[in-house]
Amino acid sequence: RIPKVVLPKYKDWGDILHWQLQENLPGSFPYTAGVFPLKRDGEDPTRMFAGEGGPERTNKRFHYVSLGQPAHRLSTAFDSVTLYG
After folding, report:
1. Among 52, 44, 51, 49, residue whose Cα is nearest residue 69
2. Which of the residues 24, 42, 61, 78 has an alpha carbon 20 to 30 A from that of 69?
3. pTM above threshold 0.70
């Protein structure tokens, strides 16, 4: 079994302090490993493009498409024409 977080095996206090200030654990300052302590399984958001029509239409489409999806979060990108050219 592979652990979710593997810590370095430093023995010198200077190395430990340097690691804590530069890297540290997930969910701890300076957040280089992410702002959440551990990512849960099934936390991936539903991904959608924005910009198809006005804001009201986009909001309605987001609600309609995400209805019944297991994810509670949306990850939106710009409209596809802007993104892909």
Report:
1. 44
2. 78
3. no
